[in-house]
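Run folding on both entries below.
>entry_1
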Amino acid sequence: MRSPRFTHFLAIDWSGAKGERHKGIALGLAHADGGPPVLVEPPPRGWAREEVLAILLDLPQDTLVGMDLGISLPFADAGAFFPGWDDSPRDARSLWRLIDDICACDPHLEASSFVTHPEARRHFRHGRDDEGKYFHLAGAATREGRFRRAEAAQRQQGCRPVSNFNLVGAAQVGKSSLTGMRLLHRLAGQVPVWPVDPLPDSGSAIVEIYTSLAAKEAGVGANRSKIRTFEDLNIALATWEVPPVRGEGPLDDHSSDALITAAWLRRVAHDPARWRPAGLTREIARTEGWTFGAY
């Protein structure tokens, strides 16, 4: 496979929260010609998930989109997404369809109906004292829930991913990932999602990102993966010789995550090795997917 050549790099910090509009969604854009990454200006009350979907359906040609969410759930550890459920899907695209079907009446691409579904809810951690029967599989190596192979690779790189079956706490990623899967299903295959779909030789593509990986490569310490000032953001960007972003003082971490990850995507996307992680097999690609940059 030849190295892909993209002209735009769009990083999306996502949110699975309830409601129509979200301050937690931020879009950072970097151009292949260089310059600092820029924020895509949100509406006054924040982005709606449906507005992000509309952007993805009308991308500039050859845009690489990184979305900070899990594009699938663990499968390899049990040979199923939902062991014990007869309707457990066989691959990632079927999973996206199942979630969207069950949540068809949930507004704003929310996913509440899925996590409360009588079969699905048994696999999620809903609270400190409310863990589903299958949140911990027998013999699991960790009490933190189930993880994908890509998340195991993230751990080897010094990150601390959270299980996509976790719905609790500030670091929970469950609803963020589930709402994201509804969006991916709504794309109806119009934009390939790597590695569930093969990376095309031309045109746009979507990948899963983990912003902590970008921060680590920019020299941000493992104990401080969030950047909360323009000054710290520009110090990190300077490690890649990226011109500074205009601004000073406080910067919300959603915006900083989107900005630094857009610059990181531009920096690493043309490296063929990034598209060939050791643990990525055809079976993992079609079921669990992968996190771009994990190896």
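>entry_2
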Amino acid sequence: MEQVFFVISKLAWAVLSPFMMLNLLLVFGTLFLLFGYRTIALRFLLPALVFSLSLMIFPIGDWLIHPLEARISQPQQLPENIDGIIVLGGGEDIKTTISWQQPQVGQASDRYFGAALLAKQYPDSPIIFTGGSNLLRFDAGATPAELSHQLLTMVGIDEKRLIIESQSRNTYENFQRLKTVIPKRNGQYLLVTSAYHMPRSVGIAERQGINVVPYPVDYRSQTGESRQLDFAVFEQLEKLEPAWREWVGLTAYFITRKTSQWFPEGPSGRFVETTTDAQADIR
């Protein structure tokens, strides 16, 4: 069943991606125009024009991704004791790594830096990484496990502390497989992932009965005066893609009962809120 869900989600995103939708509108519009069907062509080209102009004029990417990032904040006070630090994969670039035989990261590489920061705060806690290849027609072999191991040690984490799960292909499988590798089933874990991805991750964790304290990183939205008319179409599209994917993912996961809520707000806070000087330094 999970294989079917994975395949359908990948195929659906191939059509629902804003960049792909824009390309399809342009391609079909141009084809109809070339074959003389001007009226039909305009039905494709006009929406493409409106979409492109909107990206130039309005911060649509910011508007969509900011609510996701603002939903769950970093804790003002970190728990005194935890049983591990969970890091969700997604910050690595598997295909480029294989192509050049050198560890490569993508936009979400802040997940590794967040893990390194917390690893110093909790020197006795294991670092639990979960994430494999989510590519539909590309066999990455052992690369995901090797790459995550390399990247985590490169940011200064002792390899003896690492617990790596590299078979999961999406966020739901992350937490499904985590249940088999976490040290304590009922323990308390800090969760590191991109801020826009945190609501869905927390919802799945709660559904799977894994107690997490969110520690979002990799913020991408701009607010207030930072939002201005600069015709940065590509920049807005870079934010729009993950934001739209996340809203679609939240909806699909809620319908299929993989999350506890449609738009999770985060755990109610089941840890002791005590702050030491060292904990204050991490803030």
